[in-house]
Amino acid sequence: MRDLMKFAAECTAALDRLGIRYAKNIRFSVNTRATSRLGLCRKKGNQYEIEISHLLLDERTPEDSLRDTLFHELLHTCYGCMKHTGRWKAYADRVNAACGRNIRRAAAIEDREIPEELLPKANYLVRCESCGNEYGRQKLSPLVTHPERYRCGKCKGKLIRIK
């Protein structure tokens, strides 16, 4: 398991070198349950809390995925940067250019090269009748119980439950 605070210190030092002012009152934690999101930044009173998924701290996951997620969440602590527009985007572009990073507005688990064996297995599967796109779900959700109420995100085709 990687040391989250070591990587956080590395990322904050890079932001310091670039002159990007981030909040100093940040509490870092590891989310051992999150499997669909890699990071989260929330403000509680005068303090920020950054949660990082345990998947990123596994030695089999590339370190760059952890760094990119940390930079992404740290930029949310900058003044006026809770959304992924304007100042946040400008800061992300600056860090990407100066540090060779790949910070984006949103990154799916698949985009961050998480090893297959670490990813949760789908207990339920819904497939588009038109294009064959599949949607896996771990929990019984409205999509799984009533796929006829939804359409495919790619082609707007009908969905059916196959598992």
Structural description of this entry:
- It contains five helices and six strands; from the N terminus they run αβββαααββαβ.
- The protein is α+β, with helices and mostly antiparallel strands and 163 residues long.
- Strands 1-3-2 form a three-stranded mixed sheet. A three-stranded antiparallel sheet has the order 5-4-6.
- α3 (63-76) packs antiparallel against α4 (86-99).
What secondary-structure arrangement, pairings included, does this model have?
Blueprint: H1 4-18, E1 26-31, E2 39-44, E3 47-53, H2 54-57, H3 63-76, H4 86-99, E4 124-128, E5 134-137, H5 142-145, E6 159-161
Helix pairs in contact: 1-3, 3-4
Give a summary of the structure in a few sentences:
The protein has helices spanning 4-18, 54-57, 63-76, 86-99, 142-145; strands at 26-31, 39-44, 47-53, 124-128, 134-137, 159-161.
Q: What labels describe this entry?
A:
three-stranded antiparallel beta sheet; 5 helices; 31% helix; alpha+beta; 163 residues
Q: Which overall shape is indicated by the principal axes computed on the Cα atoms?
A: elongated
Describe the strand arrangement of the main beta sheet, using strand numbers.
Answer: 1-3-2
Separation of the first and last Cα atoms: 34 Å
Describe the largest sheet: 3 strands, mixed
Radius of gyration from CA coordinates? 18 Å
- The residue-averaged pLDDT reads 92
Low-confidence stretches: none
User: N-to-C SSE series?
Assistant: HEEEHHHEEHE
> Which oligomeric form is depicted?
single chain
Count of individual helical segments: 5
Number of strands: 6
What portion of the residues fall into strands of 2 or more residues? Answer: 15-25%
Which structural category fits the helices and strands? alpha+beta
How much helix, percentage-wise, in residues? 25-40%
